[in-house]
Specification:
Length: 460
C-alpha cells in the first residue's frame, strides 16, 4: 500500500496541476510534504516503538493512513490536499518505523532472510504497479480515487494486524525519550527543503528564501548538537564518524535524489511533450521500478562476491548512460519514444544494482548493537534524498520554462524539451557524484562476512 501510493503520486502531479490551476512548485508539495513528514516522524516513532511496543503503533499507522487517504480525496483545494497528505504520511511513518522490526520479531533466525525477502518482493510489486494503477484510475475514475483506493486495503490491514500480529514482549531498557531532538527535526528539514523547492517562486535573493535557509541551517545545527549530547538520541550521529558509513549514506542520498528526480520529471515529459494519457504514461514509468526490483537480488549476489564498490559504481555508470540516452532522445519525436522507454528500463537496472549493495555496505559498518540506529539514519537520509530530488527537479524545471508562472500548461514543446534536458543534466551530475563516492569507499568485506541485508532493496 505504501509503495503503490509513493509511486502513484508521481503520475498524479500533472493532473493536479490542471485540476487546481497551480504552479509547478506548489503541486510538487503534494509529494514533498509527504516525504518530509515521513522523514521527520519515522525516527520519532521508531524510538517510541522501542519504548512502548510495536503492534498498537503499527495498527495506528494503518488507521491514520486510511483516514488521511480518505480526506485527501475530499480536498477542495491544493493547501487542503497537502495538509491531508501530511496526516497520511504520519500514518506511513508509523508503518515504516515498525515493519522490519515486526518481521524480525515474528520470524526465527533461520527464516529471517526469507521474511525480509518477501517484504522486498511486496515493495517491488507495489512500486512497479503504482504508476500503472494510478494512470488507470486517472483515466477512468478521477484523481480522488488514487487516494480512496487505500481505504479498503488499509481496513483489511487493521483487521489482519489485530488478529495476527504478536504483541511486543521483553521491551529493552531504552532510556528517556529525546524530546529536544523530536521538536527540532521537523522544522529543520522543512525549512531547508522549502528553500530548495520555493526558491524560483520566491526569488533567489528574496528575504523569504534567505530567512528560510538561515532558519533551516540554525535548526539543523541545533539538532546535531542535541543528538551528539543526548544519552538516548533519536539518531546516533556518532555513526557518521565512520568513513564507510558516511560515504555510503552520502551516496544513498544522491542515488535517491536522482531516482525521485526522474520519477517527478518523466510523467510531465510524457504527458505534456508526447500527449500520453495518464495510463500510458504510468505504464511507461512502471518499467523503471520493475527493473529495479528484478535487478536488486542480482546486486545483492554481486555484493556477496565482490563487496560494494564494483556493483555500486557500475550501477551509477549505467544510470549515467541511461540519463544521457534520455537527454539526447527526449525531443518530442514519437519515433524516439521507444528509446526513451528503453532508457528508463536501463535506469532501473542501474538503480537496482546500486541500492541493494549500498544498503548492505552501510549496515555492515555498524556494530550489531547499533543496527537499529544505523537503519534509522539510513532511512532518514533516503527520505531526505527523495524530497531534495523532487524539490530540486521541480525548481530547475520551472526555471527552465522561463516566464510561464511556474506552469507546464500551454508551453511550447521546444521549451518543455529544453527544460527537461536541464533537469536531466543536473540528475546526471548527481549520479556521477554518487558513482565517484562509490569508487572511493573503503573496500570492506563481502556481504556474507558482514551481516549483509541485501535482500531488502528498499529498507523501511
Amino acid at each position: 500500500m505504501g509503495q503503490i501510493d509513493a509511486s502513484m503520486t508521481q503520475v498524479l502531479l500533472p493532473r493536479l496541476e490542471v485540476e487546481f490551476g497551480a504552479r509547478l512548485s506548489s503541486v510538487s508539495w503534494v509529494a514533498v510534504a509527504y516525504l518530509l513528514a515521513m522523514a521527520s516522524f519515522t525516527p520519532i516513532f521508531g524510538r517510541l516503538a522501542d519504548m512502548v511496543g510495536r503492534k498498537l503503533l503499527y495498527l495506528g499507522g494503518f488507521f491514520l493512513f486510511i483516514v488521511g487517504s480518505g480526506l485527501c480525496g475530499f480536498a477542495t483545494d491544493l493547501p487542503m490536499l497537502i495538509f491531508f497528505r501530511i496526516l497520511q504520511s504520519i500514518g506511513a511513518a508509523l508503518l515504516t518505523s515498525n515493519s522490519i522490526a515486526i518481521i524480525v520479531m515474528a520470524t526465527g533466525e533461520e527464516e529471517r532472510g526469507r521474511g525480509l525477502g518477501l517484504q522486498s518482493a511486496a515493495q517491488a510489486v507495489g512500486l512497479g504497479a503504482g504508476p500503472a494503477v494510478g494512470g488507470l484510475i486517472l483515466d477512468t475514475l478521477g484523481w480522488q480515487w488514487a487516494f480512496w483506493i487505500n481505504v479498503p486495503m488499509g481496513l483489511a490491514g487493521v483487521i489482519l494486524g489485530w488478529l495476527l500480529l504478536p504483541q511486543t514482549k521483553a521491551l529493552p531498557a531504552t532510556g528517556r525519550f529525546d524530546w529536544y531532538g523530536a521538536l527540532l527535526i521537523a522544522p529543520a528539514l522543512t525549512a531547508v527543503v522549502a528553500a530548495l523547492n520555493e526558491g524560483h517562486a520566491w526569488g533567489f535573493a528574496s528575504p523569504a528564501l534567505i530567512g528560510c535557509a538561515a532558519f533551516g541551517i540554525v535548526f539543523l545545527a541545533l539538532f546535531v548538537r542535541t543528538e551528539r549530547r543526548a544519552t538516548s538520541p533519536l539518531l546516533d550521529l556518532h555513526l557518521l564518524g565512520r568513513r564507510a558509513f558516511l560515504l555510503g549514506n552520502a551516496a544513498n542520498f544522491l542515488a535517491y535524489a536522482v531516482l525521485f528526480g526522474v520519477f517527478f520529471l518523466v510523467p510531465f515529459a510524457l504527458v505534456r511533450i508526447y500527449d500520453d494519457s495518464a495510463l500510458v504514461a504510468g505504464l511507461r514509468l512502471s518499467i523503471l521500478p520493475v527493473m529495479l526490483g528484478l535487478l536488486a537480488p542480482v546486486g545483492g549476489m554481486l555484493y556477496d562476491r565482490l563487496g560494494a564498490r564494483a556493483p555500486t559504481s557500475c550501477g551509477m555508470l549505467i544510470c549515467i548512460a541511461s540519463l544521457a540516452t534520455i537527454y539526447f532522445f527526449l525531443d518530442g519525436s514519437a519515433a524516439n519514444l521507444p528509446l526513451v522507454t528503453l532508457a528508463l528500463a536501463l535506469f532501473g537496472v542501474g538503480q537496482g544494482l546500486f541500492i541493494s549493495p549500498n544498503t548492505s555496505a552501510i549496515m555492515a559498518t555498524a556494530p550489531p548493537e547499533q543496527t537499529g540506529q544505523a537503519g534509522s539514519v539510513l532511512n532518514l537520509v533516503r527520505l531526505i534524498g527523495m524530497s531534495a530530488g523532487i524539490a530540486g527537479a521541480s525548481t530547475l524545471f520551472a526555471v527552465g520554462l522561463g516566464d510561464t508562472g511556474g506552469s507546464t500548461l500551454n508551453v511550447p514543446t521546444s521549451s518543455l524539451v529544453a527544460s527537461c534536458r536541464g533537469v536531466i543534466l543536473l540528475l546526471g551530475g548527481l549520479a556521477a557524484l554518487a558513482g565517484l563516492i562509490s569508487l572511493i569507499r573503503p573496500r570492506g568485506v563481502a556481504g556474507r562476512d558482514a551481516g549483509a541485508v541485501h535482500r531488502s532493496p528498499i529498507v523501511e
